[in-house]
């Protein structure tokens, strides 16, 4: 083996995702991050968090004052002052009761505000509240009994405590402190002393380390802000986004898939049964009937034995006939062997109403498409024969790109209504399983036109 | 020569053929073996199942068409498990459709009729299963629409390989009337009036079977 090994290995995929960043974290991975809008958006998010948190803290005072008082009392007890236990318990109980009673009412509009504010740094989300009927009581009852409200309540508590404090700390420690340190030469030049425990600075020349520290703080500010804003945004998504619908949607997708799998499984099973009957029972019956036929020839003409054999022979032939019909009903052999171009004309030949068939298919289609199309054709022709009072039908099948279009048009009386009877609905259901649709036009007086479109990926 | 993949039915069929005085040179179970056996024995008639191993599609039919190309005029009776007129059409396209039989497998049950079918095909006749014929007659949008009801009946029987006298008996009409119907049929299907009687009949049947809805 003398294969060259110096060919460059394919490089790692380019960092970052294609398209613009959608979150601060994605933006962090791009090279243009410091110059992009993301540091400013992150800072804006943090600053507005502080504003919202502070305003809320004030607005919530009417329902938080017992707990705040309890906090003060406990602090005082730590310094030796005594408070009766009943007072502490009363404060705790009243505080919790007020919070649980009115907190959710505040949380719901706050959550709305927070979802709106989240759009500054994250893709928009929708809330998980159920729609309610009219009336204040109805609304209150719905809100207090749904998880989305209580998740919003939890978010509210975190917002006024942790989030507020963290946002404030980040803003204070990085951009604010950084800017202050950078300004120390100017401050000392004005004759003031800068005190940073345990050091004091009073000469502009001595502040050089402070200026450097300030520069570093300001340089890392965008990154810290982005990370903090992202963390907050993830928390908001977690608690304020509508997870229920998402779960439902993914469940729905799964249900649709499993329905398609079931139909496929049924189809496979029908083919297997058909094959077994065809190659097994049918052949044996034919063989048996043939032997009876031969025996009948050997029996003396006009004898009892000849008559018995003749009767048995006749019955065997009848059984062969009905078995053939049964097998055909399970799954038409001609469909699996020769596809729609052979099966549809054969189907048309069985129809009591004369059918003009036109099949224009350049290739065999996937089995589930063929069987669905055959089913649709059989059902529509059956409907025409039963209800339309038609003198003739046209049946067309053709490929439009990757879609099989199957159309029946009759010259009957029209007025077909999917609401009446289950035939048309069942047909639409069957087509929906393979991702297709059924269109029906049937004005009173006719003509009735039924069109099924079945997606038909190129078979591999 | 006999080709049928089901062992039970193959043995049964061989017994039937011998019973009616045919000599079975070899009975085989798949299309490959059929082609080889025909080369080895040079039979006067081939009876083959259409659906055979390995793919259980139309191997028997393919083999029959191939044999007919190599040995023009070799009489072949194909057994089909279901009515499929395109099978018949493919067979009939070889050598003007003379010496061709296309019948449903279950016809073997009527042993005497089946033996009769084999004899007619062996003599160069064309026998198409009544079920196939019935299906074709009902097709619309074809030349056959020109024919009257009675003429279609006559043509159907013609396609089954019946003689004029037999047709006359079946339809309870006189033999000259049958002749007149056949003449009308040929005219309506735009077939040339010259040629032997057999030629013209075969032509009529072929036109009949090749007709496809437009």
List keywords for this structure.
heterodimer, A: 460 residues, alpha+beta, five-stranded mixed sheet, 7 strands, 64% helix, B: 214 residues, six-stranded parallel sheet, globular
Largest sheet of chain A: 5 strands, mixed
- Rg result of chain B: 17 Å
- Characterize the overall form of chain A: elongated
Question: Helical content of chain A, roughly?
Answer: 55-70%
Alpha carbon gap, first and last residue of chain A:
36 Å
Please give the oligomerization state of what you see.
heterodimer
Could you name the ranges of chain A where pLDDT drops below 50 across 5 or more consecutive residues? Answer: 1-18
Content-based structural category of chain A = alpha+beta
**Quick one: how many beta strands of chain A?**
7
The total count of strands of chain B amounts to 6
Enumerate the spans of chain B where pLDDT stays under 50 for 5 or more consecutive residues. none
**What strand order characterises the main sheet of chain A?**
3-4-5-7-6
State the largest interface: A-B, 34 and 32 residues
The computed structural class of chain B is alpha/beta
Number of helices of chain B: 10
Shape of chain B: globular
Element order of chain A: H for helix, E for strand: HHHHHHHEEHHHHHEHEEHEE
């Amino acid at each position: 083996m003398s294969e060259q090994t110096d060919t460059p290995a394919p490089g790692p995929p380019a960092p970052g995702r294609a398209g613009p960043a959608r979150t601060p974290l994605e933006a962090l991975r791009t090279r243009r991050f410091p110059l992009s809008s993301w540091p400013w958006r992150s800072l804006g998010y943090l600053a507005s968090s502080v504003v919202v948190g502070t305003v809320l803290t004030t607005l919530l005072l009417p329902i938080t004052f017992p707990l705040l008082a309890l906090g003060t009392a406990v602090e005082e007890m730590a310094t030796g002052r005594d408070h009766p236990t009943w007072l502490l318990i009363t404060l705790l109980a009243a505080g919790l009761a007020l919070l649980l009673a009115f907190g959710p009412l505040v949380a719901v509009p706050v959550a709305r505000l927070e979802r709106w504010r989240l759009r500054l740094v994250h893709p928009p989300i929708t809330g998980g509240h159920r729609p309610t009927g009219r009336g204040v009581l109805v609304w209150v009852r719905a809100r207090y009994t749904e998880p989305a409200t209580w998740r919003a309540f939890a978010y509210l508590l975190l917002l006024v405590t942790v989030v507020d404090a963290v946002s404030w700390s980040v803003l204070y420690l990085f951009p604010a402190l950084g800017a202050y340190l950078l300004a120390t030469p100017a401050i000392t030049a004005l004759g003031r002393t800068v005190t940073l425990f345990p050091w004091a600075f009073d000469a502009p020349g001595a502040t050089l380390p402070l200026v450097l520290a300030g520069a570093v703080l300001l340089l890392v500010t965008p990154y810290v802000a982005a990370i903090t804003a992202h963390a907050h945004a993830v928390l908001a998504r977690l608690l304020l986004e509508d997870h229920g619908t998402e779960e439902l949607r993914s469940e729905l997708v799964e249900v649709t898939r499993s329905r398609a799998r079931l139909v496929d499984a049924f189809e496979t099973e029908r083919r297997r049964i058909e094959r077994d009957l065809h190659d097994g029972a049918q052949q044996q019956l034919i063989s048996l009937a043939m032997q009876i036929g031969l025996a009948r020839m050997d029996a003396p003409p006009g004898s009892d034995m000849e008559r018995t054999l003749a009767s048995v022979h006749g019955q065997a032939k009848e059984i062969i006939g009905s078995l053939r019909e049964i097998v055909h009903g399970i799954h038409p052999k001609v469909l699996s062997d020769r596809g729609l171009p052979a099966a549809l004309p054969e189907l048309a030949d069985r129809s009591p109403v004369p059918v003009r068939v036109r099949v224009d298919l350049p290739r065999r289609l996937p089995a589930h498409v063929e069987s669905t199309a055959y089913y649709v054709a059989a059902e529509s022709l059956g409907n025409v024969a039963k209800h339309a009072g038609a003198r003739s039908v046209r049946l067309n099948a053709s490929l439009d790109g990757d879609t099989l279009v199957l159309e029946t048009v009759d010259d009957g009386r029209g007025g077909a209504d999917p609401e009446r009877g289950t035939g048309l609905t069942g047909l639409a259901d069957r087509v929906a399983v393979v991702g297709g649709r059924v269109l029906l036009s049937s004005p009173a007086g006719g003509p009735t036109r039924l069109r099924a479109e079945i997606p038909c990926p190129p078979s591999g | 020569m006999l080709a049928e993949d089901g062992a039970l039915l193959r043995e049964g069929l061989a017994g039937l053929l011998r019973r009616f005085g045919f000599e079975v040179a070899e009975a085989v179970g798949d299309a490959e073996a059929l082609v080889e056996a025909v080369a080895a024995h040079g039979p006067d008639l081939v009876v083959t199942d259409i659906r055979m191993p390995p793919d259980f599609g139309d191997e028997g039919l393919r083999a029959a068409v191939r044999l007919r190309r190599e040995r023009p005029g070799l009489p072949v009776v194909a057994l089909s498990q279901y009515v499929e007129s395109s099978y018949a059409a493919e067979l009939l396209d070889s050598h003007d459709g003379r010496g061709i039989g296309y019948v449903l497998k279950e016809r073997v049950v009527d042993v005497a009729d089946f033996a009769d079918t084999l004899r007619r095909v062996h003599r160069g006749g064309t026998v198409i299963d009544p079920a196939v014929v019935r299906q074709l007659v009902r097709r619309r949008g074809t030349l056959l629409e020109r024919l009257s009801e009675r003429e279609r009946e006559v043509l159907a029987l013609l396609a089954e390989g019946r003689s004029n006298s037999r047709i006359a008996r079946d339809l309870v009409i006189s033999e000259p009337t049958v002749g007149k119907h056949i003449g009308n049929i040929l005219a309506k299907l735009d077939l040339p009036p010259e040629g032997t009687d057999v030629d013209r009949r075969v032509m009529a049947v072929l036109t009949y079977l090749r007709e496809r809805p437009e």
